Amino acid sequence: MNIVIDCERMKYPNTGLYTFGDKFSHAINSVISPEDNISFYIDRRTGKFMGEDARYIEKRLIDKLLPVPVKSLDIWHTTYQLSKYIGGSKNTKNVLTVHDLNFLYEKTSPSDIVRYTKKHQKRIDRADYIVAISEFAKKDILEHLDVKGKPVIAIHNGCILPEYDDFDAPLYRPQRPYILAIGTVVPKKNFHVLPAILKNNDYELIIAGIKSDYVAKIEDEARRHNVEDRVKIIGAISDAEKYWYLKNCLAFAFPSLAEGFGMPVLEAMRFGKPVFISNLTSLPEIGGKYAYYFENFDPEYMQGIFEKGMEDYIADKDKAELIKQHAFSFNWENCARKYYQVYQSLL
What we know:
This protein has 10 helices and 13 strands. It is an alpha/beta fold.
C-alpha cells in the first residue's frame, strides 16, 4: 500500500492541527506493515518532523490547481477538513479527517454558514471515507452535510505529552497557586468568563496560547471583578513550558463554546488534575464523569461549581488516579490502528 499523509497544516506550530499531524504521523508510521510505503506532504516551513529518513513531498504553488503527482498512490489522507490539496490519480482513495463544524456554534452570520457549509461539502464530495475525531463531530457531519452513503466513523485522537521533568524555567513563574487555561486566545474559547472564579480565593489565572484582540475582553472582565493583578495572559508556550504549567497547576479550566475534541482537557487529566469545562459540543464526551461542568457562565454559578468541585476533588483520595486512567485510555497507537483499518478497507 502506498500512502500519503497531508501534513501541510503543520506549518502553523502551537496549534491543534500541528499536534494532530505530528502525533498521528508518528503513530501511523509505527503501526503500518513493513510492505507499505508512507510519505508526508508538507510545507517547506514545517521541516523534517519525522526525521531525515522519512519520505517527504514538499508543497508547490501549482498543487492548489492540480492533484499532487504521486505514482501508484493508493491512499491520500487529508488530515484537515478544508485542505485545498489532493494527490494521486482517479484510482487513489481519499480519507478525510473532519475535526469539527464549529462554524455552526460560533457567532457566524447566516451567509457565512452557507459559505462554510459549501466548502465542507466540497471536501466531503471528493472523499471516499470520512473520519470524525469525536462522536459529536460525526453527528454534526451527518446532520448538516450530505455524505451520499459514504462510510462515516468516529475515531478519537490519542493523547501523549513529552516529559520535561528537569525543566524549571517557565515563561512566567506564578506567585500563587494557579488555575490554568490553554488554547488559542479567541472568542470561541470563552476565556473571558474565567476571571470570575478568582473571587473568594487567592489564586492566579494563567491563560497560555497565541494571542488575538480578544485579550482585551478578558482584561476588561478581570478589571470588572477586581482581579486584574491575578490574571496573566502569557502568550504561546513551548512544549516544555506546557508540561511545567500542567504539572504544577491547581486546576485546569476550559469553558470553550465549540470544540471538535478538546485535547488540552485530556492533557491536564493525564496529570490527574481537576478539570472545569463547559458542557458544550464534544467536551462531555472527552471529560466523561471525571470532569466538572459549567452548564452556564453566570459568575456566581461558576464560582459555586469551582468551589464544590475542588472540595470534591480534595475529599476523594482516588480522584486523581481515576482521572489519569481515563486520560490514558485515549491512545495514539489505538487511533492509528483504526485509521489503518480504514485504509485497508478501501483496497
